[in-house]
Amino acid sequence: MEYEGALAPAKVNLTLAVTGRRSDGYHLLDSVVAFTDFGDRISVMPAEEVTLAVDGPFAAGVPVDEGNLVFRAAQILRQSVAGREGAAIRLTKNLPVASGIGGGSSDAAQTLLLLDRMWETGLSRTDLASLALMLGADVPVCLEGRACRMRGIGERVDRLRLPECGIVLVNPMVPCSTAAVFKRRDGAFSPMPDDLPDLSTLSGLCIAVDQVGNDLLTPAISECPEIGVVLASLEGVPGVRAHGMSGSGATCFGLFDDAATAKRASDALRTAQQAANWWVHAGVIAGD
Ligand code: ATP
Fold first, then answer.
1. What is the DSSP string of 88-127?
2. Distance in angstroms (rounded) separating the CA atoms of residues 133 and 76
3. Is 285 left (phi over 0), alpha (psi -120 to 50) or beta?
4. Using CA positions, which residue lies closest to atom 8 of ligand 1?
5. Beta bridge partners of 244
6. Ligand 1: residues whose CB is within 6 Å?
7. Taking the CA of residue 84 as centre, how many other CA atoms within 13 Å lie in the half-sphere pointing to its CB?
8. DSSP 3-state assignment of 271?
9. pTM for the structure as a whole
């Protein structure tokens, strides 16, 4: 029996507004989310029990038990269909961990989709989205896997048309705890309009990236000053059209006209930062 596999792409918050906070402490967000053409890889194969093996360049330290969202996704799906089937799951971890690009959430979403097919659960897309939300705020948008506006605690996901363009992700490889960043945030909330401007051209998207920005940037830089260094490097790289930080950091992004320009920029950043040990990756975000 062969493994069936899927890409679990990096999730990039091109804009991120914190619009409020619920009485239970959950923050309400409004974010333009894009997905890259690179990421982790999830493979599944029929088996008696659910098992997980993790390999790849960022496998070290990633949990292989219930602490892994992939494992939890398999369990939650299995319980919801009272299934007895298992799956041998393999996760190839290519994305840096706890870095604001939703690696765990994207892995979980692809696990749900692959196992839903393999186990022929018959669940609707709405059922899957509810399970996804139980796994984490970013999992429903990762279930879509394409450009979306994400709102609320992650439950409101609407497809968006973004331009196809080049992207470079840069992570300074220093930990930046999401909880610590939210704790440092003390600004007012940022209301967002019901209707977004046209983001289907790169110019329109870049204006939104510059104007809306990321409400977690200031607290993230206080928590992890290297983010400021990464952003300054991205700002100075040839061909960059806009730049910003994803999620609660520390991964930052630059947008470019096309894949080739992004690749040249990533080469330049890598050469300049050889000693700094940054993770730098170029690719594209797919439009719709
Ligand atoms: P987000 O952008 O959604 O906030 P993130 O990129 O900051 O996510 P993840 O890479 O998903 O964060 O990892 C967050 C934590 O979740 C890690 O500390 C890790 O121990 C745990 N974790 C659970 N499952 C996974 C997984 N499949 N891949 C990576 N980390 C995982």
1. EEEEE--SPSSSSS-HHHHHHHHHHHHHHHHTT----HHH
2. 11
3. beta
4. 102
5. 253
6. 62-63, 67-70, 91, 97-105, 107, 138, 178, 247-248
7. 0
8. helix
9. 0.96
